[in-house]
Amino acid sequence: MKILLTGRTGQLGSELQGPLSSLGELIACDRSNMDLSRPESLAVLVRGVRPDLIVNAAAYTAVDRAESEPDLARRVNAEAVQALAQEARALGALLVHYSTDFVFDGTAQRPYRESDPTGPLSVYGSSKLAGEQAIAAVGARHLILRTGWVYSARRSNFVLTMLRSARERRELRVVDDQVGAPTWSRDLAAATVAALKRREPLEGLFHVSAAGQGSRWTVACRVLQLADLATPVIPVSTEQFPTPARRPKYSVLDSGRFAQETGFHIGAWDERLSSCIQQGGFS
């Protein structure tokens, strides 16, 4: 099996390379040779590889900056995804794509299921939802995995921001009314491979995230505790900490369907965060 991976240097793509290599011949690309901000260039590149499986780990993820770069966000998160889906359909390939909890409006009283109505609050969320819809409209074989609050020891994410800020500031102010479940990119990569290793690869739309839930403030406190940093963390409301992009106040995902179909279950977010930090690599 020939596998095409986009976003190989990102926090998810870097974790996918090893596991995907066990499934077949891997061609891993980054922005230098497969730029999703130029959707019109993708067809030639995909046809040159002729993959059996396309794993799209590339995305525009700068949530706040997207508010001032909506066209770029849409090109990467929707138009490029549509182009990949069109090529996957032409080749009969399976397209694996990752989406986000930010497609929801945050008003739910229980973890979101795949069938729940969407209602993104931000340009980023809207662009990711448009990518999901483009795949469905094209009709390619696909596996869309929605996840949330992804972190790793590389790139830019909430965990790294908290560690850096705690070393630079006397105190941190973190919102305590946005609730989700931090998910380690390594666990998301493992979940992906579990879905692909079934007798028949999993297809459709599924939620995959760590178990449990916590507020941004709760997560920040746990990060600093695990890193032996004593910087005080002051809880504040979203209204006290305005950002360019609106975020859902509740975006916990129900991963039950995925676990039932694959037998794969990501553990509690705080335990997985502990494993990640204990393995080092954070600076």
Range of helix content: 25-40%
Give the end-to-end Cα distance, rounded to a whole number of Å: 37 Å
Characterize the main sheet: 6 strands, parallel
Strand content: 15-25%
Q: Which structural class is indicated by helix and strand composition?
A: alpha/beta
Q: Order of strands side by side in the largest beta sheet?
A: 2-1-3-4-5-10
Task: Looking at this protein, list some descriptive labels.
two-stranded parallel sheet, 283 residues, single chain, alpha/beta, six-stranded parallel β-sheet, globular, Rossmann fold
Layout of helices and strands:
Blueprint: E1 2-6, H1 13-21, E2 25-28, H2 42-49, E3 53-56, H3 70-91, E4 94-100, H4 123-138, E5 142-147, E6 150-151, H5 158-168, E7 172-175, E8 179-180, E9 183-184, H6 185-196, E10 204-207, E11 214-215, H7 216-226, E12 233-236, H8 256-262, H9 269-278
Parallel strand pairs: 1-2, 1-3, 3-4, 4-5, 5-10, 6-9, 7-12
Antiparallel strand pairs: 8-11
Helix pairs in contact: 1-6, 2-3, 3-4, 5-7, 7-9
